[in-house]
Amino acid sequence: MVNTQTIQFPADTLELVHKIIKRYPEGKQKSALLPILHLAQAEWRWCSPEVMDYVAGLLNIKPVEVYEVATFYTMFHLEPVGEHVIEYCRTGPCCLMGGVDVYDHLKKKLGIETGETTPDGKFTVKEVECLAACGWGPVFQIREKYYMNLTNEKVDEIIEELSK
Amino acid sequence: MKILTEHINVPGIETIDVFRKHGGYSAVEKALKKMTPDEVTEEVKKSGLRGRGGAGFPVGMKWSFLAKPEGVPRYLVCNADESEPGTFKDHYLMWKSPHTLIEGMIVSSYALGANTSYIYVRGELMYVVNILEKAIQECYDKGLLGKNILGSGYDLDLFVQPGGGAYICGEETALLESLEGKRGNPRNKPPFPAVKGLWQSPTVVNNVESIAATSWIVNNGGEEYAKIGIGRSTGTKLISASGHLRKPGVYEIPLGITVEDFIYADEWCGGIREGHKLKAVVAGGSSVPILPAELILKTANGENRLMTYESLSDGGFATGTMLGSGGFVVMDETTCIVHNTLTFGQFYHHESCGQCSPCREGTGWMDKVLHRIEHGKGREEDIDLLVDVAKKIEGNTICPLGDAAAWPVAAAIRHFRDEFEWHIRHPEKATQKGAVFMREGASWTK
Ligand SMILES: Cc1cc2nc3c(=O)[nH]c(=O)nc-3n(C[C@H](O)[C@H](O)[C@H](O)COP(=O)(O)O)c2cc1C
Ligand code: SF4
């Protein structure tokens, strides 16, 4: 048995969860799964088995229904991540704009490779596919924010700002 | 001629008051108070508007296929999953002017008789989800959404649904699965969504840009819309321009301008970046065949290539391509076609949902073989192997992602075979940083 008792959304998030469930017809509350997984990840940084079990309970669905979804979609972190997850676009158009060099600079600056987290737990770097910002490449995303037209200098500024 | 973006740079256009000051929501007034749902559909049919998500299927015709059994709800779902590499127009439109989409959603939902509609936005664009939700709340506050809209007796609830990061959810049946809270596995068709869609109810799925265009059609009439463009390519199209251009960005063009104008005219992309030359273009998002400079500017018959569905596909796959989603990726002579093809190969391998073996295995093989060619470990027979794998995927899968993965590889080899050969025969040169094959006598190497 997994202990899910310590995992609980704060009251205002719970209220939001119930509002989201009402967007769908009676009995179709499973549709709320992706929005709620996003809320869960914002709350606990990653989707641990305990978190997924808690979400299953909220939606009255089987835990496996949550696992199979969380593992399908790339945005959900299935392992612990750092405070800031930097997700950079590795696809063609960003590469045309010098993406590879900028991302190399980023990784060198943080001293980690793709998929790793800095020892202080501050940053994780991940490689993702096209972020729909090709005309403003190279691009990376940290949480909801897009950082566009990146250069080595801009990367330095962003990291310094977030390291404070 | 701007239909979707005329006011996009007006400060505050994301708020309902400014949007209304510039004529916003007049189409809702007109449709709900003065037209029947069928009359709206009729105007959209007359407009010749074709789906802007990639396939170009006539929107009015799609709407007329919607089943309307008594007592069963119908749904309109907007496809804002936008994940095709090279495409970022829907992102731009929703970010800058969310009400442009919402107005189209109200008008289109009315035409279809839907009382609940959803906008499915790719999860990475959570900030756009927030922008849309704020704009939707404004509409509820002003009586443009909810019960008895503007006293017309028509009710509509509109919700935004975030995805979770999966290109395949742009395929309409995968999108519906995802909206039901499941993995994004495309469904076998038939039944089509028009008969059994969201929760097994009749559903229309349309792209952001398609839906946004319906407001103008309601205001000005389908015939006016059809006057813009050439032949069966009516109206305007948002083109996402990226790569080695002076002015990359999103442009709303009247369909029918020449490709040459679009690339070089100051009104549009302003030419290739300083000191460089055009080598190749992927004209409609990563799935469509890449064309070298001479074939994107002129058809094989020597006619000017136009920005229309018909002209871009002139010559079939031998010498043509497709308008697709309008993701226009421009490459100059510094671009290594092998590397670019590899990034697309990785993309499709990563994004295959894995249901069909030709797609699941085939995208994996292509990725692996491209990877070894790019990294100096290619073999002479690898080029034909890639062509063979691409052929075996094509047409043998549940959804078109298989084709979408096969075409770019096949086209890159068709038009740039010498570049692949050079990689295989001269690995020590090809693997040097920034190394690019220069074709003798090509317009971009002169
Ligand atoms: C793999 C794949 C990805 C797709 N991605 C999108 C997308 O991101 N946005 C979109 O509007 N259509 C996308 N489509 C097309 C949709 O299946 C569908 O045709 C479209 O949403 C219909 O809207 P339209 O007729 O207004 O274009 C995709 C299709 C496939 C096969
Ligand atoms: S073609 Fe590929 S993406 Fe489409 S259903 Fe088959 S395996 Fe999935």
UniProtKB/TrEMBL annotation, chain A:
Keywords of this entry: 2Fe-2S, Iron, Iron-sulfur, Metal-binding
SUPFAM superfamilies, alphabetized: Thioredoxin-like (SSF52833)
Gene3D superfamilies (alphabetical): Glutaredoxin, NADH-quinone oxidoreductase subunit E
Cross-referenced InterPro entries: NuoE-like (IPR002023), NuoE_dom (IPR042128), NuoE_N (IPR041921), Thioredoxin-like_sf (IPR036249)
Keyword tRNA processing: no
Cofactor binding mode and count: Binds 1 [2Fe-2S] cluster.
CDD domains found in the cross-reference section: TRX_Fd_NuoE
Family: Belongs to the complex I 24 kDa subunit family.
Cofactor(s) annotated in UniProt: [2Fe-2S] cluster
GO molecular function, one term: NADH dehydrogenase activity
Name recorded for this polypeptide: NADH dehydrogenase subunit E
Annotated residues for binding of [2Fe-2S] cluster: C89, C94, C130, C134
UniProtKB/TrEMBL annotation, chain B:
Annotated GO MF terms: 4 iron, 4 sulfur cluster binding; FMN binding; metal ion binding; NAD binding; NADH dehydrogenase (ubiquinone) activity; quinone binding
NADH-ubiquinone oxidoreductase 51kDa subunit iron-sulphur binding domain segment(s): 338-383
Keyword Flavoprotein carried by entry: yes
EC assignment: 7.1.1.-
Domain of life: Bacteria
Function: NDH-1 shuttles electrons from NADH, via FMN and iron-sulfur (Fe-S) centers, to quinones in the respiratory chain.
Catalytic activity field: a quinone + NADH + 5 H(+)(in) = a quinol + NAD(+) + 4 H(+)(out)
Protein name: NADH-quinone oxidoreductase subunit F
Assigned keywords, A-Z: 4Fe-4S, Flavoprotein, FMN, Iron, Iron-sulfur, Metal-binding, NAD, Quinone, Translocase
Keyword NAD on entry: yes
TM spans (from-to): none
InterPro entries found in the cross-reference section: NADH-UbQ_OxRdtase_51kDa_CS, NADH-UbQ_OxRdtase_suF, Nuo51_FMN-bd, Nuo51_FMN-bd_sf, Nuop51_4Fe4S-bd, Nuop51_4Fe4S-bd_sf, SLBB_dom
Family: Belongs to the complex I 51 kDa subunit family.
Cofactor(s) the protein needs: FMN; [4Fe-4S] cluster
